[in-house]
Amino acid sequence: MSVLRSVTRRAGRHRWFGTAVRLLVPADRVLGRLTRGRVVALGLVPSLVITTTGRKSGQPRSNPLLYVPDGDAYVVVGSNWGQPHQPAWSLNLLAEPRAEVDVAGRRIPVRAEVAAGTERDRLWRLLVAEWPAYEVYVERAGGREIRIFRLVPAGPGGTRRRDGSGGSDGRGGSDGHDHPI
To answer: DSSP assignment of the chain, as one string?
Structure first.
């Protein structure tokens, strides 16, 4: 691990870091879009640019996010730097689970699945191993549910889970409601 990456991971636990980085997100968003996801977060952590459909506007909305790989899927978390409100991209995915990610120079259509139960626990451990500050963000969020999404490539046959079963509706349950995780 590079020295800069190590310092960044330690700094991520401090409140000032989240505030400072939020100011850089617009520039990071543009850089990620221009490089088709090749350069996001200055290459310090595995990152992608997700493009969701705005739940109110219907317009494409792009955001740079840290991710961890899980098989052929990408795992992202709606931590919002520990702020008390959900990130807009998370709410957009609940309204419309189809999205696109730009990662490593490729644009990939995906379908978002909200992780729940033991699957959520497993994915949370992967996320915290990559970015330990997520544990601090949970405390800062003041009890807000921090959603974890598994972004599954959407091929011609629809989404598939690692176990080969069909994908979910992207909301954590088959009844279309936002279930707590």
So the answer is: --HHHHHHHHHTTSHHHHHHHHHHHHHHHHHHHHTTTSSSGGGSS-EEEEEEE-TTT-SEEEEEEE-EEETTEEEEE--GGG-SS--HHHHHHHH--EEEEEETTEEEEEEEEE--HHHHHHHHHHHHHH-TTHHHHHHHTTT----EEEEEE-BTTB-B-TTSPBP--SSSSTTS-----
Query: Which pTM does this prediction carry?
Result: 0.69
Mean pLDDT by 10 residues, the chain (181 residues): 52 54 61 61 73 96 92 96 91 97 91 98 95 86 93 68 39 31 28
